[in-house]
Amino acid sequence: MSLNDVAERAIEFNAKKVVLVERWKSGFGKISLFAVTSNGLTYFPPIMFLSKVLLRREFNKSKRNYSSIITMAPEDSPKLERLAGCLSQFFNFSNLSLDEAAETHRASLHLSQVSLGPIRVTFMFLQQMIEIGPRVTFSKLVWEVPQ
User: Fold this and answer.
1) Cβ distance 83 to 46 under 8 Å?
2) 3 state DSSP class of 97
3) Domain spans of the chain, in order of start
4) 117-124 long-range CB contacts below 8 Å, 24 or more apart?
C-alpha cells in the first residue's frame, strides 16, 4: 500500500495514529509513526531503523501482560529520554521510573541503552524484572522527518 492508501484506510477506521513497520530485504527495516489528519498522514518523529527483532514467542513466556507505561534503565541518556518522551506522547503512556511503575503496574514498555550503544525496546514483567518480549534494537533514530 502507498502512504495515501494507508491514510485512506486509517480515516475509514477513524484512527488518530498509525504505526507503520516496513520491511527491508525480507527483514524488519524501520518503524514510522504518523498522526492522521484530514490532509493524510503526518510524520511523528523519530523514524526508528531496526537492527534486530526478537519476538515474544522466542522468550518462552506463555502469559500475556499488557503495558500502558514506559520505563527506562537507570543509566538514562539524553537520547533515551528524548525517545521515551516521544513514545509517551504518541502512545499516551505515562513515563515512570522503575520503582514507581512496579508499585502500580505489572508490565512496562522498557527502554535501555548500554554504554552509548544501540537503544533497545522490550517489554518487562516488573515484579521480577523479567523480559517478556518482544525485543527491538534500533540501529539509528532519525529525528528530522520529511514533511
Assistant:
1) yes
2) coil
3) 3-142
4) 118/51, 119/79, 119/80, 119/83, 123/56, 123/65, 123/67, 124/71
Q: What is the pTM of this model?
A: 0.83
Q: How many residues does the structure list for the chain? A: 147
C-alpha cell at 83: 525517545
* CA pair distance 93, 85, nearest whole angstrom: 9
Torsion sign across C-alpha atoms 115, 119, 125, 126: positive
CB contact at 8 A, 30 and 53: no
Rounded Cα–Cα distance for residues 29 and 98 (Å): 30
Q: Would you identify the CATH topology of the domain 3-142?
A: Rossmann fold (3.40.50)
- Position 109: which residue type? L
Q: What is the pLDDT along the chain (147 residues), one digit of tens a residue?
A: 888 899 999 999 999 999 999 988 877 799 999 999 888 899 999 999 999 888 877 766 555 556 678 888 766 678 888 999 999 999 999 998 888 898 989 899 999 887 778 899 998 888 888 888 889 999 999 999 776
Residue carrying C-alpha cell 527483514: 27
Q: What angle do CA 89, 14, 48 make, to 5 degrees?
A: 40
